[in-house]
Every structure is written in C-alpha cells, then in structure tokens.
Amino acid sequence: MKLFELGTKDRINSLIISEKLYGREKEVDKLLTAFDRVAEGEKSQTELMLVGGFSGIGKSALVNEIHKPIVEKRGYFIDGKFDQFQRDIPFSAWLNAFPELIKQILSEPEEKLQGIATELQEILGEEAQVIIDVIPELELLIGKQPPATELSSSAAENRFNLLFSKFISVFAQAEHPLVIFLDDLQWADLASLKLMKLVMEKIDINYLLLMGAYRDNEVNPGHPLILTIEEIKNLGGIVNQIILSPLSQSALNNLVADTINYSPEKSLALTEQIYRKTQGNPFFSTQFIKYLHKEGLIYDNYQQGKWLFNLPEIKILAESGDVVELMADQIQKLPQSTQELLKLAACISNQFDLETLSVVYDKSRSETASYLWNA
C-alpha cells in the first residue's frame, strides 16, 4: 500500500472567523511604546492613553492585543468595563478590574506575597476595610480588618479616593508596572471620572499606564469625560490619544482571506461586497460574514475541499439595508425562548455567567444553556 500523510484532507465544516488583529500595527506600536515610557526611568510619570472610535471599530480588541506583550514585560494588566445601564453604581469598572489582579498576586511566591501584603497594610492602615468592602478578594491577601470609621458621605468619598489611589500605588512598581484599562468611558459615572483625575494628579503614583476606550461619536465638548480629560491636561497630566478609523479594504481582505483560506487575490471579490455593506467596521464585517454563512451564501464544498460563495446573491444583500437590520433579523429568527433569555441576560449586565442567568431564568443550568446555545 502506498504511504500517505495523515490528515491532509481533514476539514472543519464550520466557518471560524480569524481572530487576528488586522490593519492596526501602528496603533499597537503606539500602545506598547506608551507602556515602555511608563515602565522606564527612575521616576516614571503616570500616563493616560485614550482610544476613541465608533462602536464596533475594534477599540477593545486593539487594547487586548497588547495584554500578552505587557505580561511578558513583567507588567500587570487589568481591565474593567462601564455599563450603560449601571451608571448609578460608582466606580464599577475600577472595582471590576482589581479582583483578577488580587488572584494573580495570590499565586506569587510566598516571599513576594508577604511583601505586598505588608505594604498594603502599612499604606491602608486601620482603614483597609474601606477597600475590602468593595474588593472582598483583598481580605484573602491581608486578612480580616477592623471596621472602618463612620463618616459623612462627602468625607467617606474623599477617604475612599485617597485610599484607593494609595492601593493602586502598591501594584504600580518598577519591577511590575501596572496597566489599567477602562472600557466604555462614555458611560463612566462622575465618581469614577473624579478618581481618574485624582490618580493622574498623584505624584506618588509611578509606573502606571491608565488606558481608556470610548465612543467618540457619543461625547460632545460638554460631556463629563471630555471635561475631565481637559482638566487633567490643564493640570499637566500626560494624555495621549488614538482615534481608530474603519479597516481599509486591504486589511479587511486579509481577514476574509484567512477566514475562508483563500489567497488575498481570490478573496477580493467577496471582500468588496462585505466592505460595501460594512464600510470596514470590524464588528459589522464579522457579523455579516457569519450571516452570509448562516444563510448558505458562504458554504463548504466538501468535494472541492474549500469554501465557496454565491457572489450574485451577496451583491444583492450588500446593496440593500444595513448590517444592524440583518443582525436584528437574525435575533428575530431565534426561538422565542432564546429571545426571552437574551432579554434577561441583557438586564444583568454586558457580561454574565450561566449560574446567575439560570437563577434569574428560574431554570436549571443545563436547560438555560440549551436555550442560550441557539444564540
């Protein structure tokens, strides 16, 4: 029998969108350069790096692209996200960011762990419970603390801001610079913006890169975020900004080519129609590709061993309506039970876990998961 190589014709018949980042090389370089600036020097100053752009333009994806390189450079990277429907919860994104950092630190060698715990207790003093109340994981690091002194609301807020800025300074050190990424700043509450300004003012916080993403089309000159940024600049704070544009057709073509395993030359005809529909918005582009696959307009031809696409039908779709309408249409095609479940999930937050959702839905986890799977 003639020898042959195993697996040469094995194929995955589901369309998997390439997860690489396309067309953002310059922006990634700017972010990493900003990290290098705060990580170097004896007295590195805190820097605020803002990433603006429309919804779906790839702000979060851009920032997350530098997560691994920062960790490789000994940095800590944490992130939190503001929610449009939870703006009444002060400091939500700040507080969501730190539990993961505490968990990372708990895995450090015992000697380093004890050093951080001692420094935290010294810097927070008898008021450490103020931080534990909002970040319970901290108790795992420094143990139980005495109750905090009762103060008036304004005094309590000032105390919290002071303690939290000290808390941050413990983790932002020369041996491990800290990156805090706050997403959807256009929905930040006033207390969070005030804290951001305070952190940028503090001369005793070094080796910190504060990054924020926001939808620049949803803020005007009088928006609290813009006013806060101007105040930081006026106080001498270092503020830099990247405004993301839609992907070029060339960058989008690379994404399409990698997704359907074509050469860029052969995928261009399909890309042109996707670009016509989405104007290079990365999120809308990937959603449109998924829609085309679900509708059978991009399909797997097993005999030929490759993906094919129905270009005439795709052209018709590209010229009619917009992607948002297509996405809404896809949701309406879901089973009614799945639609109801998604409504409940949206009420929880922009992120949710199966356990919480099953409790809200009043069904078992397995039953909840089965309804959610359709989405």
Could you write a compact summary of the structure shown?
The chain is α/β, with parallel strands linked by helices.
Fold and architecture overview:
By secondary structure, the chain is of the alpha/beta class. The chain folds into three domains: 25-243, P-loop containing nucleotide triphosphate hydrolases (Rossmann fold); 249-309, no CATH class; 334-373. Helix content is 53%, strand content 10%. A five-stranded parallel beta sheet has the order 2-3-4-1-5, with helices on both faces. It has a two-stranded antiparallel ribbon with strand order 6-7. The protein is globular. The model has no long low-confidence stretch (mean pLDDT 89).
List low-pLDDT spans. Answer: none
CATH class of the largest domain: Alpha Beta
Give the total of beta strands. Answer: 7
The CATH homologous superfamily of the largest domain is termed P-loop containing nucleotide triphosphate hydrolases
Q: What do we call the CATH topology of the largest domain? A: Rossmann fold
What structural class results from the helix and strand content? alpha/beta
Strand order of the largest sheet: 2-3-4-1-5
- Reading the helices and strands in chain order gives HEHHEHHHHHEHEHEHHHEEHHHHH
Fraction in helix: 40-55%
**CATH architecture assignment name of the largest domain:** 3-Layer(aba) Sandwich
Compute the number of helices: 18
User: Mind summarizing the main beta sheet?
Assistant: 5 strands, parallel
| Cα radius of gyration in angstroms | 24 Å
